[in-house]
Amino acid sequence: xxxxxSYVQDDPHVRLMMAGSTLRKVKSRSWKKQxxxxxxxxxxxxxxxxxxxxxxxxxxxxxxxxxxxxxHQSEVMLSIAEEFPAELCFTLVFHGRQGNxxxxxxxxxxxxxxxQGVRKLIHKAQTMDEQERQDQWVRDxxxxxxxxxxxxxxxxxxKKLLKMMNVEMNEDNALHLFTMADKCESGSLExxxxxxxYQMLTQRDEVWKVFQDYSGDGERLTLEELETxxxxxxxxxxxxxxxxxxxxxxxxxxxxxxxxxxxxxxxFQMYLCSQEGSVFNxxxxxxxxxxxxxxxxxxxxxxxxxxLLEDQLRGQSSLEAYIQALKRGCRCxxxxxxxxxxxxxVVYHGHTLTSKILFRDIISTLKEYAFKVSDFPVIVSLxxxxxxxxxxxxxxxxxxxxxxxxxxxxxxxxIPHMLPSPQELRGKIxxxxxxxxxxxTHLDETLTDEVSDEDETANGDxxxxxxxxxxxxxxxxxxxxxxxxxxxxxYCKSVHFHGFEHxxxxxxxxxMSSFSESKAKKLAKDAGSEFIRCNARQLCRTYPSGLRTxxxxxxxxxxWNVGCQIVALNFQTAGLEMDLNDGRFRxxxxxxxxxxxxxxxxxxxxxxxxxxxxxxxxxxxxxxIQVISAQQLPKVNQKEGSIxxxxxxxxxxxxxxxxxxxxxxxxxxxGFNPVWNETLNFIVHSPELALVRFVVEDHDKTSxxxxxxxxxxxxxxxxxGYRHIHLLSKDGTAIPPSSVFVNVNVSELT
Length: 750
Prior knowledge:
CATH architecture of the largest domain: Alpha-Beta Barrel
CATH topology of the largest domain: TIM Barrel
Strand order of the largest sheet: 15-14-13-16-17-20-21-22-23-12-24
CATH class of the largest domain: Alpha Beta
Shape: globular
Number of domains: 5
Structural class: alpha+beta
Number of helices: 23
Largest sheet: 11 strands, mixed
Number of strands: 32
Radius of gyration: 28 Å
CATH superfamily of the largest domain: Phosphatidylinositol (PI) phosphodiesterase
Distance between the termini: 51 Å
């Protein structure tokens, strides 16, 4: 494959980027500094430094950039809008939780060159196949290590580079391969020769062994042999013959082999490393569930205190936090409103030092970003601390800014007996808040505009840690509601929870309660089945304890086990709980709605998470995972000469009986191609609810193991057979080419 540079150099925008530009980097209204930016020769790395600083510089890869926004499209840019015209401004938005880079060019032409240039490079990076991506990764390392920039490396430098890449190898073997790659016998390798050397070094024995098991001549797989492999190992049954032909067309690099309908070892390895060879069944990544059931029949990806980027006491409140949550498929966001000083309601974490943002700016952000990744409805959970006047201002903003997007009346004008479906509510924003009366009493003018203030606080701890407002005194306070705001609440009326008996006999389907994690856990423990039945008909929201001022999270699985739909998490905090949330919602087109198992959608269900074996249709599964090897794990510790000692752990999250974990031993000093060949076995009682999390850690006998990478998916989305698990960072972003190679077997427990 040609070097990356040659494709892009012909583009005028990219040429300007390579020549370099002085751009202003902006962090706030008062922090604006000039930096020199340029695109390096690899066509993928952007380098920048201060014009007067000595040696210090920074770099980032185009692969890390998710999008380029033009003009004043970030809070920082809006704050300097009067100083710099929109045509000079642009914002680079990164994957994961990394902050934006806001830049101002000297001329509109220069801004356009960077905007269009970066977009072209992102597109190029996204359309690479696995092999190109792997080769590019190797080239990036070569560029990083080629200190004198002569484009060559001798054996000593190559050894040093392999160490940086986390590669431990036998020196004689490496020298032998080095000599083979050094075609001109010059004693050094140029970049493309190094890519070839690296390919030879990474030929994988364990893949070769599987290949040998099915190849008659040891050189290639005929069409029939590949079909047999797909049928016996990959569990593909009838479709294996048609699929075998497609795989050869898609992954076989040798044209001769394609003509003969056969597959070489290279093609076989590329297939196993592709998305089709992934542990996640690609068909289930698409939107494929029934979206016509009532809202209460779905798990809904939900965020808590969405406005915060950091902790709950003095963190930054930000519109970017809403954009990031919506980008991750979140469908329920929280807005914490307080009276602002100039008649404009503000959003922040009350009684704390977190910064404030305008309510109307959040609603404008919602309008722009709500339906970028999913068409299905967004619920705005309003925690309202405003007086009547500013509540009316909020109602005006909601109507004026959102227009048709805002749902303001029942769909067909009828009083609903069950909630509408995500399909019927596509493109709509729903308000969750208190309401004067119900939908039935909409025309009754005699209703008082006072509602009991007891609902949030009496259902657990209040969400805002307000010192001067101890819950004991708030239980019977009355607060006034603005009728304009109340009228905008249709299918999500916040009410106090009076027990399951009351919910069954009295509650309307559009009424919903919120529970703190401790209250929800107690209800789940004391009355799991009743909670499930109640959640088949009504929505319910759970939220983290007010004591989690560090924005930590609770385990959402405990809430999903009893059918809670809106399990609100601090999206800004990476870790196990967000891995589980991302894993749960990775299926079904990442649309933020996942259909609950059938036994949780039945209002007469007898299912109890504590006794899964009692339900009709109980089908436990046996899961067997042979952990074979891992590839190119990232270094955890950047100290010179340190190499990881990896182990793999498989964790199951589900009903209480299914919560378990097993791990392999650790392999000393090999993050490059460790081989375990260890089998881990599990019995899963409620496969329909379970999540499987694969974690790789760096073993440390004196302190806690360091996290290397993870991947989480629903049990029902697992593809059996020889599969690769493509690892994600702590932040949930991809870390190619790191992967774990496994052989997965799923069977019914008899």
